[in-house]
Amino acid sequence: MIAAPDTASLDGGRLLPVAEDFYTLQGEGFHAGRAAYFIRLGGCDVGCAWCDAKYAWNPALFPPTDVQTLVARAVASGAPAAVITGGEPLLYPLDELTRCLSERGLQVFLETSGSHPFSGRFDWVCLSPKRRKPPVDEAFGRASELKVVIGSNEDFEWAEANAARVGAGCRLSLQPEWSVAEQIMPAIVDYVKSHPRWTVSIQTHKYMNIP
Fold first, then answer.
1. H or E segment and range at residue 40
2. Edge-to-edge strand order for the sheet containing 35-41?
3. pTM score, two decimals?
């Protein structure tokens, strides 16, 4: 687990450490199947053992990229929306990036653990809370969607504890941890049948073999 660099070097968010950016389909959660431009920022201080983006944890590997260059690539792709993800994107000031994307006509979505204070304006916030570093209070009120990764039966209790703190309009989903998906899926199915306010999120991009 590697923390973010000093944000003073990022010129107030006009520069950001970009691990990768690409045009693809959203693979999971409420917007699954929708075309979107992904912007993955490097740096994470949460460090989940099962993370499938560990290559993005060390921000020192990714020289700061000018936000205007990043926005130009997103616009040129033709994507209707941009997804800001990580790593943990809230380690960084996101006001400049989100403003520029919005001004160019893109919807702006955030995927976050909610473990840091918010910056930026978003059309949709997917909160995926992690036990290692739980969300700050603000995150629950900002969440459009609560997506909880389920790797064992104990995680259902964690899911409900977080669901009790989000707003009434927040959508709730349970997502099997990929490495144990086959084993845990029957329990998730049974849980959603018994607690139908929840839905199931599948990592469809892994089945489609796309990023």
1. strand 35-41
2. 64-66, 15-25, 35-41, 81-85, 107-112, 124-127, 145-150, 171-176, 198-200
3. 0.94
